[in-house]
Each structure stands twice: as C-alpha cells, then as structure tokens.
Amino acid sequence: MLTNLKDTKKVVGIKQARRAINNNEVQTMYIAGDAEPKVVHDIIQLCSDKSIEIIYVKSMKELGKACGIEVSAAVAAILK
User: Would the pTM count as exceeding 0.70?
Assistant: First the structure.
C-alpha cells in the first residue's frame, strides 16, 4: 500500500496537501497515526467534505520514508 507513494505524483506536508485538496487534485490522502490531532484535523475535515479516501499510516517516520524523504511527514496526498 505504501510502496506506490515513492513513485507516484504526490505532495507531502500540511500546506501542500491543503492546497491540493482545495484545487481538487487529490485522489488519496495518507495520514500518520501519530501526528498531532490539531495539526491533521483540518485535513481530515477537508477530505471528509470532498469525499477523499483517507488511509492511516502507523507513524510519521514510516510515512516520510515511504515518500522517499529524509524527514517525518504528517500527511501525504496522491494526486489525480
């Protein structure tokens, strides 16, 4: 499931994900289970409002690694 994140068109991070959702560019949203709830709450709400599939990942470190970046990530979005 996470293996397709590295090789697909995506955005990583809260600001970029929010922008992509507002532009109707997001197919699937990945959210780290250990991310601060206050940080990801808006993203979860936006995804719910726009019927975007949310997939929860165990940790921010795991999500960052799956995206091919050296740092942890709270969210990542696969683009249409």
Answer: yes
